[in-house]
Amino acid sequence: MKRRLYLAAVLFVALWPALQFGLATSFRLDRWNLFGWAMYAAPDRTIEIAVGRVEQGRTVPIALSPETTELARRFALERSTWGRLARPDALAKAIAEEVPVGEGLAVQVRWLRIDPLSGEIEAVDEMFGYR
Amino acid sequence: MGGRLLAWSGRDGTALAASKLATFTRFLTFAVAAEMWESLPYWAAGPHHGWHVTKAIVATLAAIAAWRLPRRATALLGGLLLVEIVAVFPEAANHQYLQLLCLALVAATAPGRPEEPVELLQALRWIGALGLFWAGLQKLLGGYYFTGTFLAYAISRNERFAAFFDWMLPAETIERLRAIPLAPGAGPYRVDETLFVVVSNLTWIGELVLPALLFVPRLRLPALVALIGYIGTIEIAAREIFFGGLIVNLVLLFAPIDAGRRALPFFFALYAWALLSLAGLLPGWVFT
Fold first, then answer.
1. Which of A9, A35, A46 sits opposite B94 (nearest CB)?
2. Which residues pair with B198 in a beta bridge?
3. Residue among B91, B131, B188 whose CB faces A120 most closely
């Protein structure tokens, strides 16, 4: 009899989305992924990356080369999928090897979040500093 | 206890269960193979395109073999699908995990032992209903449907949604939504038309309530008809033919007859049309 197998499958489908929801909420993972049945539950994630060098306590924007621009684009995609589990360490390292960063490097990760009730777009920023 | 829990989703006679299982297996294997062909353009620029072409050919042969050798064919297809899911992880579609689960369960089931197909179908009915229920609950938890924010966003970013709501909303509303830039302070993705807000809320309410009604024997048939109509309406906008086809066939398992068998030619024709249009042999690819 395969009854236990069938029951396990049913329980998995019943319980896994709750865990997926918790993980997605905690780490800002893309809710659409990982078999949580959250398709069309929230707008697509839009992530923007800005990089600057720190000079006398101020952040001065850095113009990225085509190579690091591509790295930043890939990181934005990775961040939109993996949320807080994705850090820009490799991107910062590649930029630091390419241009002088003075006192340090600041990577701003901006999530363009749509407020569920007002429907307006708001910026949710997270800063990563490197010395 | 476990047997009674499974039986809440209904109980078919052994002959009907065997017939439904054969039909579902034929649909499932054909759909998985068709989607492997449909995904080929995604892999075209990559280094493993040859492997994916081979995979689609083997999947097609397995789908044909599934008519005579369902367990071996579903096991083979499950292996191929697992490779695909791993290759695109974590971007695999939710319905691909569902396909994999169904393939694994069918592969594990011995058609010759009459009780196994009966209980497998009970489990598949549960799985389909739970999936729909969770889809509704996730929309509720996200909070994007109360004031129509998600649908307004979908209209702004997706022409299929814009076309679907064209009859319901004034042209200037759709133009406004489609002109919203992705920038802080932009918006709002909001529509004040009452009917639009009602439709937005019916989306998640339908997914929560209708699957639950399938477990009430007296309401099973009307709930089934309502769900098929509901999913069909959603798919006119979303056009997720592989997800939609799978969930419809899971819901049809609640029918008192092998309704999937009657629907099978429709899905074969739909997927054939989709693939031929993707190949440029029929007008425009309009599916996802």
1. A35
2. none
3. B188
Say how far residue B124 (Cα) sits from the centre of its chain.
13
A66 to A52, A69, A95, A102, A110: CA distances (angstroms): 16, 5, 11, 21, 20
Per-residue pLDDT of chain A (131 residues; tens, 9 = 90+): 799 999 999 999 999 999 999 999 999 999 999 999 999 999 999 999 999 998 888 889 998 999 999 999 999 999 999 999 999 999 999 999 998 887 899 999 999 999 999 999 999 999 999 98
- What value, to the nearest 5°, has the Cα angle with vertex B228 and ends B223 and B234? 120
Complex ipTM: 0.94
Class of residue A66 by CB neighbours under 10 A (exposed 0-12, middle 13-18, buried 19+) = exposed
B185 touches chain A (CB under 8 A): yes
Cross-chain Cβ contact A2/B120 below 8 Å: yes
Q: Which residue bears the tokens 């009970």? A: B122
Q: Do A7 and B139 touch (CB under 8 A)?
A: no
Measured between beta carbons, the chain A residues lying within 8 angstroms of B180 are 121
Give pTM, 2 decimals: 0.94
